[in-house]
Structure formats: C-alpha cells, structure tokens
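Complex record, three chains
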Amino acid sequence: MSAISETRTPARTAAIGWDVGAIVKFVAVTVIALVVISPLFLLVVASLKPDRFQILADMGSFRAFWVSNPSLDNYRNVATFSGALPFGRYLLNSLVILFCTVLGGIFINSMAAFVLAWGRLPGRAIILTAFIALYIVPQESIVLPLLTIVNKAGLSDTFAAQILPWMASPLYIFLIYQFFIQIPRDVYDAATVDGASPFRIYWSVFLPISGPVLATVAILLGIETWNQYLWPLMVTNTDNARPISVGIASFFGHDSVYWNSAMAASVMMMAPVLIFYLAFQRWFVSSFISSAVKG
Amino acid sequence: MLLPAVILVTIFLLAPFLSSFRIALTNERLIPRPVPPRFVGLGNFQQILTDHDFWRALWNVARFTIMVLPVQCGFALAIALLLNSKLPFRNFFRGLFFLPAITSMVVVCVIWATLFQYPTGPFNQILGFLSFGMAEPIDWLGDPNWAMPSIVLLSAWQAYGFQMIVYLAGLQGIPETLYEAAELDGANRWQRFWNVTMPGLRQTHIFVLIITTIQAFKLFTQVNILTQGGPRGTTDTVVHYMFTAGFVDQRLGLASAVAILLFFIVLVVSIVQRFVVKDRS
Amino acid sequence: MNTVLGKRLLSVLGTAAALSVTSLGLSVAQAAELKVMFQGDPYEVTIITDVAKRFEAANPGTTVQLINTPHDAYNEKVGAAVSAGSLPDIMQLDAPFLANYVWSGFLQPIGGVIDKPLLDDMTASNISQGTYPIDKQLYAIGLTDSTVALYGSRKQLEALNIRIPKSVDDAWTKDEFETVLKTLAAQPGTKWPIDLFRSYGTKTEWITYAYEPMLVSMGCDVIDRTSWKATGTLDGAACVAAATEMQNWVKQGWVVPQSAGGNQFYAEGRPAALAWGGHWFYAEAKAQMGDDVVVMPLPKFGEKGASPNGTWIWAVTKTASDPAEAGKFLSFMLQDPAYREQYKEHAGFPGLKSFAAASPLYAPGGAMAVAFEQASKSAVPRPPHPAYPTITLAFQNAMNNIFDGADAQEELSKAAKKIDADIEDNDGYAPFGKVE
C-alpha cells in the first residue's frame, strides 16, 4: 500500500452541472428514503401505544404500523420514571462517555495514523498490519480478560472503564491512515522545508484539511460508543456510570417485556446521536485536499 | 505520537487477547469451580476442528460475507453518490438515510422479526399482493434456505450507513477539477464515474473491503437475537459458536480457542484481500 | 422518592469502586453493610429499592447496598465476582443454577438464618427449587415461583364440547390432548391448535423449562437423577418416543412455528387455539380476551402429570460478612406487606402459601388457581446438578433441531454425549453420581 503522490491540477471554481432531471432525482431519492426508513415507522408507532399488551397483539402484521389513539404517555413515563431507574442520569452518563471517547479518539487515532502514514518510524507497515489484525478480535472474546484487567486497575464501575478501552481503535487508525496517504507528498515536504516539527505538521497542516475523515471518525466512533451494550453491562454495578443502553435493557425483564417503555426509550435514545451526526456531517463539504494543494 | 494509541491498544485489546492464548490451553470455566482448571494442551483446538458444527459455522459466515459485501457496500456507495450530488434538502436526506445506522441492533431485530413474521407478516403480505396471491408465504427466518439471506438483508439495512458515510467522506477527497477535466474531454456521466470517481475512491474501497469483510466474519448480535443459529444450524456463526461455548456452556478455554482460530482465519482472508487489491494497482 | 433514592445512590457511589477490588475476606465491616446483587425489570427494581429503604429504617446502623444487574449478563457478573473475590452478601440467582453455585462452593445453607414461620410457609415447589440434592439443605428462598399452564378460550372449547379440566387430578390424558388438537385443527378459523411458544427460541430457558415436564410426564428425563448420567436416559427409547411424538405435532402443522411470534393465541382472529404458556402469559391473554381465557392444568401424558417450576430466588453467599443479618434482611423483605402487595399487583406466582391465599388470582376460585395447584402436585424442578448449564444447552439445541425436522434419536444421542462429556470433564462433579 504505497502513498499516492500524483500531483493534482489546482481547483478552479466552476461547479459540475448535475441539474438535468433534478426533479426526477429528487422524487426518486424521496421514494427510496421512505422505503428504506419505513421499518422505523414501526418503532415510532409502537412508542405511541401506551398499552404494552396492545403492542404485543399488533406485532407481526400491518397493524404494527398503525396507531389509532396516539399518546405520549410512554415518553412521559420514561422521562419521569418514578421508579428506581434514573434515566436522566443514564443519559448524562452516556453523553459524558460519548464526548470523552470521541474527543480522545479523534486525537489519539489521527496522531497514530499520521505517524504510520508519514513518520520516519521503521516497520510502519508491520505496525499498521498488526493494528488492523487486532480489529479482527471480536469484543465478545475479550470482555472477560478485560474485566479482570479493569477490576485489578480499580476501574470497575467508572467512566474511565468505559472510555479508555475504546478510544484508541485500529479501525479508525486505519481509516484516517487511508485518508492521510492520499495527501500529496508536496504538502508534507513543503512543511518540512519550513522546518516544522512532525507534531506541528500534523497539527497545523494535516488536521485542518482532514475535516471529512475526522467527522467520519467522530460520527462512527460516537455511534459505536453510544450503542455499546455488552461491555458497560459487565463493567457497571450501580447507576454511577451506567449508560442508557444498559438502562433500556432493564425493560426486557426475564418473563415480561415492557414494550411500551422500551420503544419510547429507544426513540429517545436515538435523538442525541442523530443531532450529533447532523452536526458533524456538515463537515462533508467541498474538497479539502484540493483546496490545500491550491496554495 | 504513536504512543498513546499503542499503549491503549496494548492494555485494553492486545493484553486481553494474549491472555486468551493461555486460557485456550486450559479447561477454565466461566464460573470458577472447586476442580482447578488444568492444562489441556491443544485439546480445545482438536475438539473444535473435529466438530462439524464449527465448520458449518465457518461456512455460514463465509456465505454471509459473500452475500453481504456487494449488497451492503453497493447500496452504500449508490446512496453516498446521491447524497454527494446537488440535491434539495441534502442535509435532511443525509440524516434520513443514516437513521438505520443509529438504531440499536436489539430494536432493529424486534422490528425485522415483525416484518419477516410467518405467515402473515408485512413481507409475506407484500409478496402475496405482488404475486396476486399466487406465491406461498415464506418462512423467512425459519426456512433453512431463506434464513441466511434474510439475515443478510437485515444486516445490510442496519449497517450500510457505516460504508455510506465512509464513501461520503472519500468523495470529498476527489477534486472537482478532475470532473471538469473529464467533462471537457467529453466524458459522459457513466465514464466520469468509472474514470474519475472509482479511481478516486481507491483507498476508500480498500478500507471498505477489508473492514466490511472483518465485520461480516464477526456476525453475531442479530443471529443471537433472532435465530440463535437455527434453523438446523443454517445461521450459526463462528462468534455465536464462541459465545455459546463461553457464556452459555461456560467453557472459557474452548471459547478462547475459537477466538484464536477465528483471528487467524480472518487474518489470512485479509492478507489475501490486501494482496489481490495491491496486485491491481 | 427520587431525591431520597438519589441520596442513597450517592452514598453508595463512594463504596462502589472499592467493592470490586477489596477482597471480601479482608474487609472488616465497621457498621453492618449488606451488599445485595439482583436483577429485575424496572418495577422489580423499584420494589426492592423500597423494601431496602424500609429495612434500613427498621434497623438503624445497617445499610443495604443494592447492585442491580441486568439479567443478560448475570452469570458473567457472578463469574467475575467469584474470580475477584468480591461476591456480595446476598445474591439472587436463577433456580436451576443453584446446584452449580452450591457445588462451586460459594453459597451457604440458609435454613438457620431465615424466620421459621417463613420456612414453613414455603410451597413444595419453592422448597424444591431452593434445595441442593446432596445435603438436602435449603440454600435459597423466594416469595415467588413460576409455572406453565394450558390456556384456551372458554367459548371455543365449550362450543366444541371439549372438556375443561378443573383440577390437576383430572387433567387431560395424552389421548384426550391429541384428540383436542385434532379437533381444533379442523376448525376453519384456527391456523394452529396450539402455541408452544417456540418463538422464545433457545436464547431463554424456555425449552428446558417448559418442555422437560412433557418428557417427565411421558416417563423419561433429560438425565437420570440418581446416577447423573444422560446416556441411557435422554437417548433411551422413552425419550426418543416422546421427542418423536412432539415432533409429530409440529409435522402435523399443529404447533405455531418459531417465526410466527408469541401472540398468536390472542392476536386478531385467534390463529392459535391453545397456549402452553408461563403464568405471566395470563396477563397478556386476559388483556385481549378478557374473561374468555380459561386456565387448565398441563396434560398428564403418562401415569403422572408434571409441570415446570423455578424462578429467581435469594441466596446468602459463603463469604457473607454477617449471615444472620443477611437472613434477617431476607426474612424482612419476604414478609414485608408492601413488597408482597406489589408482587401481587404484577401477578407474581406464589412461592409461599400465605401469599397465595392473599392473591385472588391464585387463591381457590381464582382464575389461576389450577395453575397454583400444580406447585404442590406436579412441579418438577429442572435437574439440580452442577452440569446444568451444559444440560440445558444440549437439550435445547436437540429439541429445537428435532422440531425443525432432525432425527430424534440422533439429536438426543448427541446431546446425551455432550452432557456426559462435561460431567466427565469435571471428574463427575463429585459427590454427584457417587453411590451413597
């Protein structure tokens, strides 16, 4: 996997015209989108049915997609749950874990990717391959030894136990690496000539032009963190650091499922990540590389 | 600069994984027992490699991978191209198409179990409607022939957002000037796609191919929730086999050995992929 | 209530981190502190949190720390706690795993620390789910238990002149049961005569829990309960015949398939006529069908009837810092009127006679009275053996495959071999299997 170092023509400002049949395309996209997300209507519809037995009775037919007396009771119940499960606290915990993991993850992974792509380190290819290979290891197979390690470190039932293990990720190092090696050699060389240190080059040359890939990492790592289930389930004992994904699991009892609350909570759980995603996807604009080369 | 990542990965990923090498050589149990665990050498590996169920699970994930790769990645690329082009309410659509990816797998399975329901679920109703009542309802998750394709469809639906967003980011790296140049040369849209877009996404393709393959080989959650490997083992996967051995049957030693075998099998697949992809450049 | 709870949790936070690293053997309790590990849905968590608060109020100086664990990872948590030496004082456990835990050596008998009247109040089924077969001692207790009953529509059964059994003693016989299935299969509106809840799959305990009694009633078992060998029993002629019989029901199209969901008994049009459902199913069915739901005892396939039992029950760990205090808490909780009231509201299946008498649903004349009668007449615990995790896994896979058309003899032999191999691998789980 060698770095692509082809020189690119400087960007000009003209846009490419794709307007032909714009309306046809818009209609087509709308139809595809509706078909694709239609299964999710079921989730929203079920969350508006306050009677869990009714949800059960309607499952497995088109009635699951229809609610005759929509009610927000389920949302109200979850939000103000009068019982022993503080969903507000769980939500807060999840947000803390999300932000710490994503923030740390972006820097740690991009620094590693930078060194692997451009550093003067011997055996870079081997290290990269080793990283990717470690991505193969399924989480289910390491949770138990990991639990022992975390317990020994005294991190059981803490935020750190849910943040530290997943910040550095072979997957995202690989992703950012693939992006970094596309950056033309000139960019790196120009900075070296100026006498900048590697960290400086990373910080003030590479990071600023990596918007799309960093946004991608933020979004994907964010979702992954948000939906983590098995690990937080095992590592949290109290409500201290328990995230919302585990909180929702409580609705699935050993002999009865509180579908009404579970569905409402699931919809509520999706909202923050959706906002998070919409915030970051705005970084997907224009060609950062070409604008960098332009100068 | 490499150090933070190396340290974290070593402590939280490499070390636990290495410890499974030690466990794999013993008959250690999930819940410690009064009979101390003993060294069994390669006994666990021998037991797995002579177990027909393991090979079936491996064959199943291979089938799954081959089916899900083109479906999921192809759809993701198509949607990414659409969402990267000029489109009214583009951000709105980008959000819409990403919704399945942020839905937790448990919820996805509940929804799709309803869609697949036999004999009167929505898919079967649509099938009956489209065939004017001619087609018999299909037991999507209960028929050995349909179970895996059904899991493929569900998985691709839930996960395509991952590849979509990676492609979307990759598309930002292709300078618009290349398209302009191609257009000046008189290339039509199709030619621009093959000669500008596809080569420009080369690094992204490599990433998507390798990562999607690895993810596919790790198939577990949806199978565990919906079919538990059935019917008749047609959707059993290596990770499900491992999970069952470790967490249900409580044989940690055996489960660790499965994890190690899976690691080396997928490693070989990845290396072959890298080799093939590299050859073409 | 929330603010008090918040404070309680905050007070718990400080000790929470220490809990996992401190070896219990070394920790010296200053004031009495009880650590209680349990699982439950949000309503149970609320109930237990409240009763813990009342216990603290009634016993100044004692604090109760609740460790609420989703039941998905309960076994893993137990394993981790045992390895780390950080077991709580009191732990809830799923009844069939009792033998495994006791044999592994981390539970202690509770007969001496629980209030005597409470022990006398336990149903036969409740005692059996908490008893370890080797020393015949009681290791766990609960307010509740569970069972499976046969549900039908009174209107439909009466219209077809099908006899509705009123007590366990006059349950349907095998022939009667199969005639009923045949009759129901012929009804135009009925898609399937019975729902055996195959939809629960093999991820839950359902297959072993709900189907093993059929085998027992048909004269066989998953494992011989004296020699503790599966070969010769599970793969014997009686079991193969029983499993083939059940497979035949599926082949006839009498059983709701796995992918049809668990709501066919009461869904629109009532596609399934009967339901072989847990006691919790009554509330579901009643919500849609009202008083038309009729509860019947499980059929007597052979000479005697058999019915499932067992639920999540409470035990005291061997490392408990103060077993007497732990017993005091359990006695307090199980006799707490508000605790009982809340379980009654959620239709908990009684494990105590006095609780049954006070639950209109299960008391004589109640809709579920006949289901409760099973607890004293036909309840059979799942094999109380430390190999249970392997037993249930092997059996569930075998039965599921048989239902899906596999050869019964082949599948049961495979399962029996797996079970015996595990027992051998643990040196026979001595003293199990030793001739007394």
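Note: Chain B has one domain: 51-250.
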